[in-house]
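Quick question, first post here. What does this chain look like in 3D?
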Amino acid sequence: MTGLAFLIPIALGMGLMGLFAFLWSMREGQYDDMDGAASRILIDDEDEPR
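> Answer (accepted):
Ran it through. Tokens below.
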């Protein structure tokens, strides 16, 4: 029973850290352009001499 007294606050703390990490990534714009990186990899914009 004493194990739960330690594990529940640790689990809640880890959940709060995950929530704050998610909110930080939303604020930094990590999810603004979800399709741009996938389409940019297909565009060949370098002019290579042949």
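The CA atoms of residues 36 and 42 lie 10 Å apart.
The chain has a mean pLDDT of 88.
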